[in-house]
UniProtKB/TrEMBL annotation:
<comment type="similarity">
    <text>Belongs to the GrpE family.</text>
</comment>
<dbReference type="InterPro" id="IPR013805">
    <property type="entry name" value="GrpE_CC"/>
</dbReference>
<feature type="compositionally biased region" description="Polar residues">
    <location>
        <begin position="28"/>
        <end position="38"/>
    </location>
</feature>
<feature type="coiled-coil region">
    <location>
        <begin position="48"/>
        <end position="75"/>
    </location>
</feature>
<dbReference type="GO" id="GO:0005737">
    <property type="term" value="C:cytoplasm"/>
</dbReference>
<keyword id="KW-0963">Cytoplasm</keyword>
<dbReference type="InterPro" id="IPR009012">
    <property type="entry name" value="GrpE_head"/>
</dbReference>
<feature type="region of interest" description="Disordered">
    <location>
        <begin position="1"/>
        <end position="48"/>
    </location>
</feature>
<keyword id="KW-0143">Chaperone</keyword>
<dbReference type="GO" id="GO:0051087">
    <property type="term" value="F:protein-folding chaperone binding"/>
</dbReference>
<dbReference type="GO" id="GO:0051082">
    <property type="term" value="F:unfolded protein binding"/>
</dbReference>
<comment type="function">
    <text>Participates actively in the response to hyperosmotic and heat shock by preventing the aggregation of stress-denatured proteins, in association with DnaK and GrpE. It is the nucleotide exchange factor for DnaK and may function as a thermosensor. Unfolded proteins bind initially to DnaJ; upon interaction with the DnaJ-bound protein, DnaK hydrolyzes its bound ATP, resulting in the formation of a stable complex. GrpE releases ADP from DnaK; ATP binding to DnaK triggers the release of the substrate protein, thus completing the reaction cycle.</text>
</comment>
<keyword id="KW-0175">Coiled coil</keyword>
<dbReference type="GO" id="GO:0000774">
    <property type="term" value="F:adenyl-nucleotide exchange factor activity"/>
</dbReference>
<dbReference type="InterPro" id="IPR000740">
    <property type="entry name" value="GrpE"/>
</dbReference>
<comment type="subunit">
    <text>Homodimer.</text>
</comment>
<protein>
    <recommendedName>
        <fullName>Protein GrpE</fullName>
    </recommendedName>
</protein>
Length: 209
């Protein structure tokens, strides 16, 4: 007896599964999925550090530049101010000579006495009034005079013209000032010409009494 074979019959596989895949499934994709490579993010990390370092360097350079510019502006402003205040220094030095001449003119007059000549009295009063007015003008323009008599000698502001013994003044004290110390806005314009004490007179030099 012969057996008919159905041409449409598909033989089962040895494992009992059919050779066709289930709808919606693709061979070989049951468990495998594509994952992003974790090393990609790590590879950019050194680059980020490099950029951050460069940014910090630029920031420090900018801060230093700003500090230098501020110092330059301050120095320039101070130099301009000094130039404005002390531009007349040579002229001021000549002007104080006139003030000292007024003082010398007063010193050349005889001491005021009762019953003195009216002409001398008016002359003295006129010179004193001129001197006061002149000194006021100088002070308004930053020029001032200081009498160092009785103060310790200061080589930065005084010029010693002579030394002598004095029982009333300690060693190194200014006994007398021939001229005052002149300053322009606090800066020395002309030193005072002074006589400085050498201390008490030695016993051997004192006259016998």
């Amino acid at each position: 007896m012969s057996h008919d074979t159905d041409p449409t019959h598909v033989a089962d596989s040895p494992s009992g599964e059919t050779g066709a895949s289930a709808p919606g499934q693709h061979p070989g994709n049951d468990q495998d999925t594509v994952q992003p490579e974790s090393g990609q993010a790590e590879a950019t990390h050194p680059r980020v550090q490099e950029l951050e370092t460069a940014l910090e360097d630029m920031r420090e350079k900018w801060l230093r530049s700003e500090a230098e510019m501020q110092n330059l502006r301050t120095r320039t402003r101070r130099e301009v101010e000094d130039a404005r205040q002390y531009a007349t220094q040579k002229f001021a030095r000549d002007v104080v000579e006139a003030a000292e001449n007024l003082k010398r003119a007063l010193g050349s007059l005889p001491p005021a006495t009762e019953g003195e000549d009216a002409l001398i009295t008016r002359m003295r009063e006129g010179i004193e009034s001129t001197e006061r007015s002149f000194l006021g003008i100088l002070e308004r323009n930053g020029i001032s005079a200081t009498d160092p008599a009785g103060h310790p000698f200061n080589a930065n502001h005084h010029q010693a013209m002579a030394e002598q013994h004095s029982d009333e003044h300690a060693h190194g004290t200014v006994i007398q000032a021939w001229t005052p110390a002149w300053t322009l806005h606090g800066r020395l314009l002309k030193p005072a010409m002074v006589v400085v004490s050498k201390g008490a007179t030695p016993a051997a030099d004192k006259p016998a009494g």
